[in-house]
């Protein structure tokens, strides 16, 4: 599987803007599909919720992966907020990698067994509907030079996992937060009570494609294309706005 998480390959027309209100702002980039061209990434507190928002230069969520009819080799499209939160904040073991919130879509498999996102009475056919995950990202050269993946769970191990872990052998959680798409933005609202919330944290904004290993074994889910990184270098410059 040829995957690469190398922001040096991104063609950035100028440096991102660190906004005084904590958001990360990024210039328009002609080389990136407009649905994945991040112009702003923001996280703020609204009452008892954390509100994660990405603004895009085009209509958010309009691009969907093409179905190939099987799990192995299938694609995932994602809007991602990498954070400085420890992985234990959502129920994984401590210090497992980069904890990120993501809105994803992948028509060839369902990984939210507790929820019926399409509202058709079947909880097992919703991969083709945008939904949310917490994932833990780590580097792995098997995903390509400078590559990254969702962290695999080694065989015959029993790590600490969130109650809504969907059963895949990777560090992924399916909390059931429904992403909301409005024209050129995507938003996920996370109840503060669901997080072991620190006083502060940093974040970024990423749009990417991931691919399931063709042989469906570790590394199971590699990032195979980065469309955009709001900061340009994954430096997590965003500050939480309260």
Structural class given helices, strands, pairing?
Answer: mainly beta
* Share in helix: under 10%
The number of helical elements comes to 0
Domains (count): 1
Main sheet: strands, sense, barrel: 7 strands, antiparallel
What is the end-to-end distance? Answer: 41 Å
Number of strands: 15
Which stretches are low in confidence, meaning pLDDT under 50 for 5 or more residues running? 1-18
Q: What is the gyration radius calculated from CA atoms?
A: 17 Å
Mean pLDDT: 89
- Dominant shape: globular
Question: Would you kindly provide a written description of the structure presented here, covering whatever features stand out?
Answer:
It is a single chain. By secondary structure, this protein is mostly beta strands. The protein has no helices and 15 strands. The strands form three sheets. Strands 5, 6, 7, 8, 9, 13 and 14 form a seven-stranded antiparallel sheet that branches. A six-stranded antiparallel sheet has the order 1-2-3-4-11-10, with no helix packed on it. A two-stranded antiparallel ribbon has the order 12-15. The chain is globular, with a radius of gyration of 17 Å. The protein starts with 16 loop residues before the first strand and ends with a strand. 43% of the residues are buried.
Q: Key features?
A:
single chain; six-stranded antiparallel β-sheet; 0% helix
